[in-house]
Design a protein that fits this description.
This protein is 61% helix and 9% strand. It is an alpha+beta fold. The protein has a domain of 68 residues. It has a four-stranded antiparallel β-sheet, with no helix packed on it. Strand 2 and strand 3 form a beta hairpin. Helix 4 runs antiparallel to helix 6.
């Protein structure tokens, strides 16, 4: 996979002197060198909680499956994705007693201003639309669980948008 704008990012992702991504697991004091072949799989599996939440939303809201069936299926989806994630890590090169260099991290605020502003706007718009949808749609307004989940996701989306705004402002104040 080409290195550049498509690089893995996150507070646990560092790069070695050969520009290879290393996932640092602080609890184990271990690094996992993620090969180019496993990067795409890592991108998907690192979002395993969100994927399980999406499974729940699809089952409960879109397909109108009982909540007592939707929750166990979502938990089973998470367990399966967690198992796949652990198996993927077993296929990575393990670096015992890894000590990451903080200067090697690719931070969220390393992106271009235009990209960060676009992401901020999209997250905030998503949050606003979720709130509007929650109050306007009778089916959502009458279902307490769906209404609560919609508002929680809206708050998270707005918080992510504001985080991007914060990084843009912080960068411009440093100049």
């Amino acid at each position: 996979m080409a290195r550049g704008n498509n690089r893995l990012q996150g507070h646990n992702i560092f790069y070695d002197k050969h520009n290879r991504p290393i996932l640092y697991v602080k609890r184990q004091k271990r690094g996992y060198r993620i090969s180019a072949e496993l990067e795409k799989q890592y991108r998907v599996l690192s979002s395993r909680v969100i994927i399980a939440l999406i499974v729940f939303i699809f089952l409960y809201i879109l397909f109108n499956i009982n909540i007592f069936i939707s929750i166990p299926i979502s938990i089973a989806a998470y367990i399966y994705l967690e198992w796949r994630y652990r198996k993927m890590l077993d296929n990575c090169t393990i670096i015992e007693n890894y000590e990451p260099d903080p200067s090697q991290v690719i931070s969220i605020d390393d992106g271009k201003d235009s990209e960060m502003i676009l992401k901020a706007l999209l997250y905030i718009i998503l949050g606003v639309l979720l709130v509007v949808n929650a109050f306007v749609t009778p089916d959502i307004k009458n279902d307490v669980a769906v209404f609560t989940v919609s508002l929680c996701v809206a708050v998270i989306a707005c918080a992510l948008g504001l985080r991007y705004v914060y990084y843009v402002i912080k960068r411009h104040l440093k100049k």
